[in-house]
Amino acid sequence: MKILILDDHSLFSKGLGKILEDNYQNLSCVYFCSIADLQTNVTSFNSFDLLISDIELPGEDIFDFLSQLRKSNPNLPVLIVSMHNKLSVIRKCKELKIPGYILKDDYDLVNTAVEQLLSSKEYYSKRVLETLSILNEKDKLLTPKEEEIIHLLVKGKDNKAIAKDLFISYNTVKTHRKNINRKLGINKTLELLEYYNENYI
Amino acid sequence: MRAFFFTLLFLFSLIANAQDYYEIDTTTNDVDLQLNGFHYQDTSSTLLPRDVISKNWEKLDIAPAFSSSEYIHWFKYSITNPYSTKIERYFFIPYHYIKEIDVYAVHGDSIELLIQTGTSRPFTNKDLKSSGYPIRITLEANDTVEYIFKFKHLYLPLRATTFLVSKETLKKTIYKSFSLLWLWKGVYSTIFLIALFFYLFLRQKIFLYYILLNIGIGLYIAIQLGEFFLFFNIDTASYISIFDFSGSLLINIFFPLFINKLTPIKKRNPLIWKWMFYLIYGLIIIWLIRLLPDARHSMFMHYSHIYILSVTIILYLLHPILLIRSIIHKDKNALVLFVIYSFYVFEAFIETILPNLGIFSDSQFVNYGILIASLTEMFAFMFLMAKEALTVYREREKLLLEKQEHQTELIQSIVRSQEDERTRVGRELHDSLGANMAIIKQHVKRTDVALFSIVSQSIEMVRNLSHSLITPQINKEDFKDELRELCHIFSNEKMTVHYYFYEWPNIEDSNITTHLYRIVQELINNAVKHSQAENTYLQFMGESDNKISIIYEDDGVGFNPIQQKKGLGLKNITYRLELLNGSMRIDSSKATKGTTMFIDVQL
């Protein structure tokens, strides 16, 4: 079994290799510290069973490399081991259909992750999944303040009365109303009433 | 040669045969009485007209001028009506600050007081509203009357010019003087206001000097023309010398100061400048003493007047010399100033000095020249000042621009150094503390659950902290995710950060995204630290790729934006907004429920 390890911190990649070699017999690891280094030495990925890669490689665009690799070798499993528990990074990996993502201090999960990937399964560690779950939060349209204003408007109150009721300034009410109209795509109070009837009653 | 002697003899015979009375002629309505009258100076100042008649009168052949003294001057003119009808004429004295003028008519033995006029008399029954003194007389057919004038000028210089004119001429003269006077008043006030406006707007001393110089000129001219006199319609005699002198004092002080602002006289002639001002300080002292009524009615007036005259002459002569030196050194404006000054002095020469020497006689409208000179001077100086104002304005604009640039640079460097420092600390935290923590975690036994979870939490905290410290390299597609995550990280049991995206704009400039990211970070940070809010709401609203609005709301305790504006968090936001040309509106007070902030940035 051959595993490619791509990380600019060789101490880390060597340590990682050691953990894996302890776990698997007849495992050989090949280490690279940059994409350029890897591309000059490896012409074909067919002989490899897994790529373990960092996200941050100085001066190089890992996503560019990964998207090419996903196209040329869709069957080669890739495990990202990164320090970054960042939504934007994880989301990109997810979009590239990269099957594995763990954090660097999840060292105790490395063996589990590798196992899962080798049996063609996905593995995202718990914390990574948590971060990714931010995306599942549904974008709401109106803020509670805006909804409050709609309620008061429907009751027939004018801006001044609303400002008094909500303890905010008149100008703030005006801005909120402008934004409500923009968000709901309406121009008249009558249309607001329609919206209210449809959504709140 | 013979012809020459004949002519000379003829001329002498003319003088010898000259009448000592005036015949009123229809062709020449107005007569300058000074050229053929008689004068008597009463040094005792006590004589009555009856006593004066028998004194030795001196024949006049030029217009007389007398310096300030306490003597009374008497003039005598014989006037004949050659017509067979009764006629009416006016004596007209075109000056305004003669204290007393009494006019008597002598018919054989009887002496009749015709009129008492002058500034110390009440102004009643004036049949012509005029500056100067018009005195009406009537002459019976073929009658000859001798008129005696008593001039009491008391410590003021006197030019006793008197004209005999018809009513039409008088009206014409008055009309002419008024029309020119109104033109002068119009120009004067316009230029005064312009200078005042310039001074208030540009805060340049040159305009203040010009304003004060003009107040001096205005005061002086108003006194010369008798304007005060007509305006108040009361006796202003005891104050006239003070006002008159105030005017000339202002002129004497502010003329050199003003000129110096236009061309560097002081720098060029420091010693002369110093002595010049010593002389001027003398004038100020005299002015102060003159405020005492006792001093005004004593010989102090006489002696101080000599000082004033000498100083004025010295200053008038000094200025062209200084200006010529400036011209030689090719200082700015020097030539123009010299030309204006020459015109001014030339005018004063014709107007004042020549008549006083008896070379050039006065006309009925003696102040014509003063007004023309003043108008010319005002236009010329206004031209120079407009030039000056333009230069100042341009310089100021340049300075302002530089200052703005400098300020932007300053803010930029503040923000940049802050970023650098944060990144450095963040890296340090991450690389050393974070790495050590990771090693500690490896050594902690899994079975020790409590310790293990504390270490894990600490690692997470260090990661989050370093993450928020290190300047994020945010590109446009990641920006929204970064913001989501930011809101997410800050949400906990105590406070929830809600976020709303509406019409997300495409922000190309990673500089802008970094600033916006930091602003949002700062907003949430402030909320955590100060607001005591349970919920904060962040709305990100785009507007067709050229504007982004961030609306922040919380349900916390609110604050006073004016008092707290100096807080580090808000200051940081303000700096960044300044760099982005953005704006912020805060709606919060201790009385409101929570805080609302509107941030707008043009992309």
Give an overview in words.
The complex is a heterodimer of chains A (201) and B (603). With 201 residues, chain A is of the alpha/beta class. Chain A folds into 2 domains: 2-136, Response regulator (Rossmann fold); 144-200, Arc Repressor Mutant, subunit A (Orthogonal Bundle). Helix content of chain A is 51%, strand content 12%. Chain A contains 10 helices and 6 strands; from the N terminus they run E-H-E-H-E-H-E-H-E-H-E-H-H-H-H-H. In chain A, strand 3, helix 3 and strand 4 form a beta-alpha-beta unit. The radius of gyration of chain A is 26 Å and the shape is elongated. The N and C termini of chain A lie far apart (64 Å). Chain B is an alpha+beta fold and 603 residues long. Chain B has 3 domains: 19-165, Immunoglobulin-like (Sandwich); 171-389, Rhopdopsin 7-helix transmembrane proteins, CATH 1.20.1070; 474-603, Heat Shock Protein 90 (2-Layer Sandwich). In chain B, the strands form 4 sheets. In chain B, strands 1, 3, 4, 6, 8, 9 and 11 form a 7-stranded mixed beta sheet that branches. A 5-stranded mixed beta sheet of chain B has the order 14-15-16-18-17, covered by helices on one side. In chain B, strand 8 and strand 9 (110-117) form a beta hairpin. In chain B, helix 4 packs antiparallel against helix 6 and helix 11 packs antiparallel against helix 12 (368-443). The longest helix of chain B is centred in the last third of the chain and has 76 residues, at 368-443. Chain B starts with a helix and ends with a strand.
* The CATH top-level class label of the largest domain in chain A: Alpha Beta
Q: What share of residues of chain A is helical? A: 40-55%
Classified in CATH, the superfamily of the largest domain in chain A is: Response regulator
Largest chain-chain contact? A-B, 30 and 32 residues
CATH fold title of the largest domain in chain A: Rossmann fold
Distance between the termini of chain A: 64 Å
Indicate the overall shape of chain A: elongated
Uncertain segments of chain B of ≥5 residues (pLDDT<50)?
9-19
The largest sheet of chain A, given as strand count, sense and whether it forms a barrel, is: 6 strands, parallel
Number of helices of chain B: 16
User: Within the CATH hierarchy, at the fold level, what is the topology of the largest domain in chain B?
Assistant: Rhopdopsin 7-helix transmembrane proteins
Global structural class of chain A:
alpha/beta
Q: Could you give the count of β-strands of chain A? A: 6
Tally of discrete structural domains of chain A: 2
State the CATH class of the largest domain in chain B.
Answer: Mainly Alpha
Strand segment count of chain B = 18
- The average pLDDT value of chain A, as a whole number, equals 87
Tally the structural domains of chain B: 3
